[in-house]
Amino acid sequence: MDPDRNPLSRFVNSLYSILDGPVTFFREKIVEPNHQHYPYYHQKFRRVPTIDECYTDDAVCKYEAQDQFRRDRGVDSEILSILRQRYEECNHEDYNTRDEERCEALHEYYQQAAGAWFCKYGDLGPMPDVVHAFMKQKHRMIWERRHGPVGTGMKIKDEFKVEDH
């Protein structure tokens, strides 16, 4: 028996086409042709000059650099949050099996990412500024030039003395 000959199925099909017809038409004729041209979900920002490339009196450049700094900090914070969540989930799964070596690589990767995040954004306070972050980077580079990498200890003053022969 053909389902289209049944009056109930013909009624349901006609009701479906009445409700779905305009929606399908709008989707196929308007949304899909324009979807490739308009990014709906992820806005892509162009990279702007960083704060060290801005002139001292260029307020627009400083504003754009600050905005980009906020976006970059948000992205880096979310990446760190995802890594932390994966590590905690791995620990939760391993709690019952007592297999501690399984999450060791993930823990090391998280520690490296957390250290890099703290090097860039740590100790900047609740309202970080791009100028303060740049100065922190500059001071860290000066420290590393004078004393070696941070965390390795300071050089002994005798290393700086030049012996005359």
Quickly count the helices. Answer: 4
Domain count: 2
Question: How do the SSEs run, as a string of H and E?
Answer: HHHH
Helix and strand content put the structural class at mainly alpha
**Quick check: average pLDDT?**
84
Subcellular location: Mitochondrion inner membrane
Protein name: NADH dehydrogenase [ubiquinone] 1 beta subcomplex subunit 10
Family: Belongs to the complex I NDUFB10 subunit family.
Keywords: Electron transport, Membrane, Mitochondrion, Mitochondrion inner membrane, Respiratory chain, Transport
Blueprint of the fold:
Elements: H1 7-35, H2 59-97, H3 104-121, H4 130-147
Helix pairs in contact: 2-3
Explain what you see:
The protein contains four helices and no strands. By secondary structure, the chain is an all-alpha fold. It folds into two domains: 3-35; 51-147. The N and C termini lie far apart (110 Å).
Name its key features.
165 residues, mainly alpha, 63% helix, 0% strand
